[in-house]
Every structure is written in structure tokens, then in C-alpha cells.
Amino acid sequence: MKPFLLLSVRPEDDAAESERLAIARLAGLTPEELHSVRLATTTLPDIDIDDYAGVFLGGGPFNASDPVKSQTQLQAEADLGRVIDAAIERDMAFLGLCYGVGALTDRLGGLVDRTYGEAAGTATISVTQAGRDDPLFLGVPDVLEAFVGHKEAVTRLPEGAVVLATGELCPVQAFKVGRRVYATQFHPELDPAGMAERLQIYRNHGYFDPDKTEELVAEALAAPVGAEVNRLLANFVALARR
Fold first, then answer.
1. What CATH superfamily is the domain 4-240?
2. Contacts of 224 by beta carbon, 8 Å cutoff, 6+ apart
3. Tell me, what's the pLDDT at 57?
4. Are 96 and 58 in contact (CB under 8 A)?
5. Rounded to whole angstroms, how far apart are CA atoms 192 and 94?
6. Which of 6, 19, 50, 115 has its CA 20 to 30 A from that of 62?
7. Is the Cβ–Cβ distance between 56 and 93 less than 8 Å?
8. Taking a C-beta distance cutoff of 8 angstroms, is the pair 184, 98 a contact?
């Protein structure tokens, strides 16, 4: 059985490892079934995308709409662009988490900017009719709570994209291109403990007032975010293996 590929853009060792472990656990994958490449610390090696059942793109501090980008970010975007192009061409299973929305939208000619950013915390996600009919949201309730925290979001979808989930502050919380290329603005890889850990790691990255870190951590641990949002990861694995 083919493994999955995780492309990480997190430069922090603890954040990257936490994300990898969470995705593997919640997707029902063993560590051997999830190969990770950290594009924030290395260039994409010469890999054959057809060796993988599907691709996860994790979140991170990069933004497609950043006015000034480091050489590391530009290289990561170029590497990601090649993988996105290959996924679109093959209609390969691809799931972008948070940053994946910006990377996918920008690559496919949509518009991502700072209009619909959301502070670190929870958001109410409403699944559209298209989402209810999609295997990614199989067994997921029509309305659910999920963790968010992003500076940019979709303002104009790429041509042919279909909205699968919306939110009050951010109108595009999930979309799809083709049959199996997805992106979510919210974080299906986070449960309350995972969000609390991530808040500690990113307390000085401009997502929130660092003096409010402990308050936000307490709110995350008490948040009504259940396993239904994490189910998207296992659903993605299942549809990728069909």
C-alpha cells in the first residue's frame, strides 16, 4: 500500500513534529505510512509523486499574500507549485491545511489576501450542499466547531473551484478543485490539546497578543471542538486509497 506525503512549511522543529504526529494519528496512518519533507528547511528532493497515495500540505507562518518573501519562502512556493501542478494534472488526492488554501488559490489564479483573516481560536463551520455530498465530509455534521488562526484567506476562488464549507467571518472555509484536490482554512488536524500546544509555540508570531497566551490556551482546552472535525483526515485517506 502506498504511503502518503506530508509537505511541511513549519521551520520550528517542535511545531513540525507535532503536526506530523497529529496528522498521522488522526488520519489512522502509521509513522511509516506518512513521509515528511520540511520545505522550510530543505528543498524538495527528486521524488516521484506517483509513489504516494496522496499529499498533505501542512500549515505554517508563510502567507501567499506576503508583500516581502524570503528566499526560503520563494523556494518553498516553487517546490509546492510543482506538486500542486502534478496533483491537478493527475487529479491526485491532495489536502492543504490552512496555508494550503493560500498556496492552492494563488497557484490556480484565484485571489488570497488579508480581507478575511481570523484570530486564533474557534469558528463555526457550515458545510454546504456540495460539501454534504462530498466524501471528504462523510459523517461530519452540517455545522461544527473547528480551530482557526490565519492572516489571509480566499477573496476570489480559482476557476472551477467548489466551496464545501463556509464561516461567518471567512466565507471560504473549504473548497475543492477537480475530484480530489482539497483545501481547508480551518484545522482538521487540531484537537483542543493540539491547539493549546500550537498557541504556546506561536505566541510571538503575530497571530495574537502574546500576553494573552495563557488565556487563549485555557479557552482552547475548553473549546467544544470534537472528533468530528478530525474525521476529515481519515476520510481523505479513505478517498485517496479508492
1. Class I glutamine amidotransferase (GATase) domain (3.40.50.880)
2. 122, 145
3. 98
4. no
5. 25
6. 50
7. no
8. yes
Q: What's the CA gap between 180 and 40, in Å, rounded? A: 26
DSSP string over 34-79:
EEEEETTTSPPPS--GGGSSEEEE---S--TT-SS--HHHHHHHHH
Dihedral angle sign, alpha carbons of residues 186, 192, 193, 198: positive
Backbone φ and ψ of 196, nearest 5°: -60, -40
Mean pLDDT per 10-residue run, the chain (242 residues)? 96 92 96 95 92 96 93 96 95 96 97 95 97 98 96 96 98 97 98 94 85 95 96 98 94
* Contact of 167 with 123, CB cutoff 8 Å: yes
Cβ(133)–Cβ(179) below 8 Å:
no
Backbone angles phi, psi at 229, to 5 degrees: -75, -35
How would you label 166-198 residue by residue, b for 16+ Cβ within 10 Å and e otherwise? bbeebbbbbbbbbebbbbbbbbbbbbbebbbbb
* CB distance 167 to 81 below 8 Å: no
Tell whether pTM > 0.85: yes
Q: Report the pLDDT value the prediction gives residue 205, as an integer from 0 to 100.
A: 79
What does DSSP say about strands 181-184 and 93-97: parallel, antiparallel, or unpaired?
A: parallel
